[in-house]
Request: fold
Amino acid sequence: MIIDDEIDLCLLLKSYFVRQDYEVYLSHSLADGLEMIRKENPAIIFLDNNLPDGTGWAHAPQIANLHPDIKINLISAFHPAIPEMPEGVQFYVYEKPVTLADLDKQFSTLPRPLEEDSPNGVSKPAGKN
Reply:
């Protein structure tokens, strides 16, 4: 899930993860993004700090508490203070502009998403985009 108001960055991230067979959800506002997290329970989120309706990073600890297995990627063009995150939470900070090389460093070792009931572990097709 990508929560960012910069359309170009959202499209870059979406393209990267769709090519790796992930379902990708986009939100361009904090309120919509928080609602989508609640409904979709994503494994990975990219959360921008400066959104039209609030500061995303301020919500990162709460997201981590409600979804302890989520991988949180904080992104910002500025250098805000990194929020104090609950112990054991997986999070990473990206400075904009985010590049494909940045993503490869962080995500090339992640296992591909697998079809849940597939005995041979075939990658599932990207669904909702």
The longest helix spans residues 7-19.
